[in-house]
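Priority: medium. Attachment 1 of 2:
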């Protein structure tokens, strides 16, 4: 690892290298600015682009799992509707055939509201955790 300390002495830049002996060498000011620019660009890439790539992977997995859960939720509700229509329903045809649809919609609404409350509780506890740390 090379640690450089840049000092300006009488208008000339001097780089002092540590941890590999004190090897004083003089560099042109333009080379030092190029090295500084390269260091800053590498730092910005390291601290912004690499975490963003990791966040993109997590986001893609989250979207895919959300779609799978949503499709599964709809299929379960269709199964509930068919179960109510074919197996449970004992009323004669034509009288109250709309009732299984209402019951299925109510079950779906209850499940969505429970999920929504758990999501909002999770986000509230996450914000309170970050407030406690800072």
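Attachment 2 of 2:
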């Amino acid at each position: 690892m090379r640690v450089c300390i840049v000092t300006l002495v009488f208008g000339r830049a001097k780089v002092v290298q540590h941890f590999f002996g004190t090897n004083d060498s003089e560099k042109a000011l333009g080379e030092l600015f190029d090295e500084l620019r390269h260091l800053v660009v590498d730092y910005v890439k390291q601290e912004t682009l690499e975490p963003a790539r990791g966040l993109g992977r997590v986001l893609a997995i989250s979207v895919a799992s959300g779609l799978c859960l949503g499709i599964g939720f709809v299929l379960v509700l269709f199964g509930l509707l068919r179960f109510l229509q074919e197996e449970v329903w004992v009323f004669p045809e034509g009288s109250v055939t709309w009732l299984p649809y209402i019951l299925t919609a109510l079950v779906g609404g209850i499940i969505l509201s429970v999920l929504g409350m758990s999501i909002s509780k999770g986000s509230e506890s996450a914000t309170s955790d970050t407030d406690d740390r800072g």
